């Protein structure tokens, strides 16, 4: 219940953070960046992590908020989930993120927990990575060598592992607008508060009763979020009917490697992904 | 604002019993003025942290505490060896057989640990943080021993849970109706019946998971050692502390302040309680230990954990002829306070509301390398009810009969009470027909069956099942003579005092120690009713052995039917004593006095005096009648002559999503008969909470271990306690058949919902899927298990 | 050893300035340093919600926040909910609806409910249940908690008779 002792700093600029990271690296100290803390602090309380230094990003105002650019939205890494779930720009242009954020943990956690924090934490069962992957977002990192941009497809690298280097921080996520697309995040849990056993993020565009575009992300079907590319390909060009959706979504588990745990084995998760994909697409299609 | 009906004279005289009084207990809890043990701070108080074994079975070959002792803020580190001479062995108050085997049970392990989480050392430090930091610095050498975790494997004795015992069997306890003279031979019934259904059912291990983690403060200053503990049983704890540690009982005071739920989980004498006493005695300073949630889940006692091998026999017409129950009961690694008696409490309930003639119960109590089991809401009775209600459904399926019809053919009719059961209990009253009829109407049983048929015919992906559970339980623990016959160490009485203060307000002292039930409110209603004084003028005191010196505490739905009776008896004694003083005061004969609305009136006159006036007269004592002590206090102890037998009918409409295996409780109706109700608000709350826990066992909760004996579901991330979105809106109603075993007519309600709801849910899940070939699903019926059961049924070819 | 930090926090309307160890959790600061023991600790994994308080008016779990993170912010606990001796409507409703038994989850439950009603003034029963998913209760089965929150949203006014209004409503509705 009580973390090991650590030093604490709360800088107000990204530059200060980078300087601290560099100093810690040369001193050989373990550092943790504290965003919303909703995953980090529990881990520290259980003493599964005991950093020498915690750098709190909570005082860096430039990392908070959503702004509109021409074809994209720029989301600050420290924007809380609650803001993602209630922001009007996101509701209009990125309904998938808007809906997925509303399913993260519980209201208290959504008030504190941040969009960027959840992405960098990269829990395979976390609810933000798969939808972000589906959008093809660009991750903007700040580091000692300046800004670095990483595509979503390269960002998630394994269990709790991302492209962010020890001397870098994630500052913003630039997400293409999907205005007018149908979107849904279908999450499956045993109890409401639980991490996703499996979840499917879907965005579709339908013209004249036919899918013209489709993007699907899978949560907790491997050590990283995955795109359900087989489903996407099968959907595009097919009719927006239950039969064709069911057929396309039966491919959802292709290429997945889900883990087995208390909530279900790998076989069950693979099956579940097909059902949830179908439901996500049906809901996204408004059927 | 007072409503008009309440202010009318007629309403003012409305009896308190049955009134929907709001709770007296709430004001401090809703404003944050709570007195939970962990809130307590005493001058110079030190803090403890436990060093626990990571291994489920190991020999301790060495402990090095040097680094921990020199850690900042640490004052001392105690190991089992340090306290071996004084720590004693934790008590088991229920040796179920004369030859019951049990290992020694030190609070701090000395030579061997037998479950993961067992305490091997304790840190005493100036702050919680300093204590916690030092835990990591204690270096313990272990020599790992083989572990036995599975109950059926443990029964074979191939691996022993303790190196000091030559078998994992603690005791074998048998009841046979032919031998007991309460019925006929089960062997004959099984051999001669037209239908015999045999099943093995599993009661998973569950964790009470009260919301308040257990906390202990011990103050050794002064001449009496005072313990505050988050316990259900301050009186029993005091006695056991004295016996275990060899302290004179008079030198120990135990206080259970606000206690955040128990559900049986705080019916225990814990290692941590003993250790905190030892630490306080050594340091001479108040010591506090509060467990973390992870510790609570890991080492607080668990519940259920049985394998139930069952055979039920019947005629083709559906008349049940006998039941054979063969249990393996997981004790865990040790025998806690009443660990060994829990399955035996169920022994009398497997026959439930039915009147079949032959019954045999055999239970083997088995040790494993897991934390010990003990009381959990219902304690033995939920397991029994689950078994018989599941078997009635299995039998109905076998016979092709409606499961409600089968039950009705076999239950005791209302005109057959009192009824002596095949297990030897005398059920005083009951009306199963009435409760069932009401439940059927509220549930729309026929409509639900039609809907079920519709979904089956349409191959609806979401199938519907109807889960039935008719139940009874033995409550009001317990007649002392019965407990004696079962070899339980204590009696089952309860104690109360009623004191009329000189200013006319009244103190009621109860030995029943509430932890959320609402005794302060209910007992105030009882006394207001009996003494004719305002509800508001009554203060109920409990949970402190210096104030409530005698009591046997709260468990087994006993408080109202036993503790409430003691309160009434004490109130009656006050009236009788007041009558003597009042007669003297008014110079009338006692026989001419009438007592009503808190006053004695001389018959046929206006002359009267109130209880308050009498109490003041007794206080001033200037003019007391000859031989009467100057006070208006009384005390009473009530020992019930029989158990009480609540019953009810629960119906659950269960939706099963055959694509995902997800189970949804669409509708839940329960009609409980708990006899006379003192406060319907409290009753409703008990029913709701009980249902939630029973439903949760069916669907969500399980203590899961890995092969090494480590608890995998070791936090609330993995041990799933359902939240508000996960539970249904309950439809509750009652029938009222008063108990005759107590003057109030009350039966008990604390456990009813938990006992009845688990089989209702599982029966509903199976009823939804049986036509698809699914025969059984182990609890909890997780989506994964449900889906796998469906898949397996597909490959084995559907319905048989 | 980690150096302590100086923080200024407004808690329940009073200003506090303290030196705290960085690892001190907000809930520990409230309970151990300020004596605000009305806020309780029920778990160590951010699941149970017993420690819920308001940070600048919105619900947070005070066990999953460092005290230093509250520097410069306003915290409201269950102890600051009643104003001028008058209970907050949710406190009154929890009492009236018998929405608590042991009372351990109650402070967190009330704080979460208050935040929920700030964000959604007229929630449905389903929205209330979902809005309280971060708070566990082991006693009530939630039904009366949901009723209490709903009654506040519906503007139900209670009398002070000490008897539950509409009592004897033994049969609920589905």
Describe the protein's architecture and organization.
The complex is a heterotrimer of chains A (287), B (800) and C (174). Helices cover 34% and strands 25% of the residues of chain A. Chain A is α+β, with helices and mostly antiparallel strands. In chain A, the strands form four sheets. Chain A has a five-stranded antiparallel beta sheet with strand order 4-5-10-6-7, sandwiched between helices. In chain A, helix 10 runs antiparallel to helix 11 (242-249). The model of chain A has no long low-confidence stretch (mean pLDDT 97). With 800 residues, chain B is of the alpha+beta class. Chain B has a domain at 493-638: Aldehyde Oxidoreductase, domain 4 (2-Layer Sandwich), CATH 3.30.365. Chain B is built from 24 helices and 28 strands. In chain B, strand 22 and strand 23 (599-602) form a beta hairpin. In chain B, helix 22 packs across helix 23 (752-769). The N and C termini of chain B lie far apart (65 Å). The model of chain B is unreliable at 1-12 (pLDDT under 50). Chain C folds into two domains: 5-80, Ubiquitin-like (UB roll) (Roll); 89-153, Orthogonal Bundle (DNA polymerase, domain 1). Helices cover 28% and strands 14% of the residues of chain C. Chain C has helices spanning 26-33, 89-96, 106-119, 125-131, 143-153, and strands spanning 5-11, 14-20, 52-55, 58-61, 74-76. Chain C has a five-stranded mixed beta sheet with strand order 2-1-5-3-4, with helices on one face. In chain C, strand 3 (52-55) and strand 4 form a beta hairpin. In chain C, helix 2 packs across helix 5 (143-153). Mean pLDDT of chain C is 94; it is low at 168-174. At the B-C interface, helix 3, helix 22 and strand 28 of B face helix 2, helix 3, helix 4 and helix 5 of C.
